[in-house]
Amino acid sequence: MSLARIALRHCAVEALKAAGTLVGTNILDSKVAALQVSSDGSLRTDEEGPFIAVYTDSSKAGELNGRSLRVNGHLDLVFNYGITAAMTQTNEKGESVVTGLEVPATSPNFEFFLDALTRQIKFTLLDPTNPWSELLKGFAPDFTSCEEMRHGNTRDGVRLVSGQLRLTVELVADPVPGAALPETGIWSRFLAKLAETDPEHFERLQSLLAWDGQAQENQLLSLYGLTGLEADALHLTSASGLNPSAVFSNDLPESTHRAGSL
After folding, report:
1. In this predicted model, what pLDDT tens digit does every residue of 194-206 receive, in sequence order?
2. Using CA atoms in the order 248, 250, 253, 256, what is the torsion angle rounded to 10 degrees?
3. N-to-C CA span, the chain
4. CA distances from 42 to 28, 153, 184, 213 (A)
5. Rounded to whole angstroms, how far apart are CA atoms 33 and 44?
6. Are 93 and 99 in contact (CB under 8 A)?
7. What pTM was computed for the model?
């Protein structure tokens, strides 16, 4: 997991809350139980109103720089959303209508709700007037794929329809621990917005961004995953001074011997 995942998910949640979609502010951050699979394979939800649940799912970094694990590669940003026949409201005429749409609570209108909500999510993420959307695009500079799925079933006489929007995005690398952040960079802009809107969350992230007080040369070794011998060879530090109990040798590792040379 990474700090960039946390930041991306937070930006997505706040962008949708500010957008005024069909679900209002019922935007859930990583709520696993929003949609649950029953033993018979059907879906159910305990939510009382239409919702969007935001997750960061699988990620893969295929081109690492040596042993550095700061790169985040590509990640799936997932939006699950749903509505049931119980999530309706009564209008002035006494009719049962779909919340937010003011149309009769019928199956075609539920499907219309899902399609309309999918569109709203997409355009919220791209909205240049939404400050959280702009930050999100800074953390995910490239969208590489988009997949939409839907599911519907009836359980205990209540119809549930749900949708999923799965975006595979390129995710920026995590910042170097303890390093000064560029004032105009995405991390500085995000932290400034976070300090303004959620000071408690800001403090948590700040503590994770900080280095743990080790010496600068130790920081470099950890950042690039260098061994003590490699650090010595690069004249970054004295490996024996860092780890006196280690055994250091000038012999090549076995993997570097050519076949037949022994």
Report:
1. 999 999 999 998 8
2. 160
3. 43
4. 21, 7, 48, 51
5. 9
6. no
7. 0.74
